[in-house]
C-alpha cells in the first residue's frame, strides 16, 4: 500500500496546571480518496474512411479514460457541422469506455464529415473528440 504523508496543523488551548504540564489527546479519523485522473478522450481527432453505400463495420473512434465513470456521450455542438453524424451512420456506446460508429453512409461521395463527440463523466467533467473524413 502506498504511503501518504499528511500534515495537520492544530490550534490547541491548554489549561496549564501548577506544574506547567498538560496533556492532550488528538484523534484524527477519516479517509483519503484516491486521486482522480483527468477525463480524456484518445485520440482527440479521428479520421474516418468512408465509401458511399458501403457498410462501415463497428469502428472504435475513441477511448475514454480518467474522470469519474460512468460516462455519457453526445454530439458536441461546438464541433459538429452541420449538426449530426453523416446520414446512415450512428454513434455506438456498446463497449464500456469507447465511442464507436457504424452503419452505411448515404451522403454523396465527397460530402464533408465534421462532427464531434463530447463526453461527460458523473462529476460533470467534459472532454471531446473530433471526427473528420479522410
Defining traits:
134 residues; 4-stranded antiparallel sheet; 36% strand; rod-shaped
Task: Write the SSE topology.
Blueprint: E1 40-42, E2 45-48, E3 56-65, E4 71-75, E5 89-92, E6 98-103, E7 114-121, E8 126-133
Parallel strand pairs: 2-8
Antiparallel strand pairs: 1-3, 3-6, 4-7, 5-6, 7-8
Structure description:
With 134 residues, this protein is mainly beta. It has one domain (40-133): Sandwich (Immunoglobulin-like), CATH 2.60.40.10. It is 0% helix and 36% strand. The chain contains no helices and eight strands. The strands form two sheets. Strands 1-3-6-5 form a four-stranded antiparallel beta sheet, with no helix packed on it. A four-stranded mixed beta sheet has the order 2-8-7-4, with no helix packed on it. Strand 5 (89-92) and strand 6 (98-103) form a beta hairpin.
Per DSSP, what share of the residues sits in E-state strands of 2 or more residues? 35-45%
**Order of strands in the sheet with most strands:** 1-3-6-5
Q: Any guess at the CATH architecture?
A: Sandwich
Mean pLDDT over all positions: 78
Question: Quick summary of this structure?
Answer:
The chain is mainly β and 134 residues long. It is built from no helices and eight strands. It has one domain (40-133): Sandwich (Immunoglobulin-like), CATH 2.60.40.10.
Amino acid at each position: 500500500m502506498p504511503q501518504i504523508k499528511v500534515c495537520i496543523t492544530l490550534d490547541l488551548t491548554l489549561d496549564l496546571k501548577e506544574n506547567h504540564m498538560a496533556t492532550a489527546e488528538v484523534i484524527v479519523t477519516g479517509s483519503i480518496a484516491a486521486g482522480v485522473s483527468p477525463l480524456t478522450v484518445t485520440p482527440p481527432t479521428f479520421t474516418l474512411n468512408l465509401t458511399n453505400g458501403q457498410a462501415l463495420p463497428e469502428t472504435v473512434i475513441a477511448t475514454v479514460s480518467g474522470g469519474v465513470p460512468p460516462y455519457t456521450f453526445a454530439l458536441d455542438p461546438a464541433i459538429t457541422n452541420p449538426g449530426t453524424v453523416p446520414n446512415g451512420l450512428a454513434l455506438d456506446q456498446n463497449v464500456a469506455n469507447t465511442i464507436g460508429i457504424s452503419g452505411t453512409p448515404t451522403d454523396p461521395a465527397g460530402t464533408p464529415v465534421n462532427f464531434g463527440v463530447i463526453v461527460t463523466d458523473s462529476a460533470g467533467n467534459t472532454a471531446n473528440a473530433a471526427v473528420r473524413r479522410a
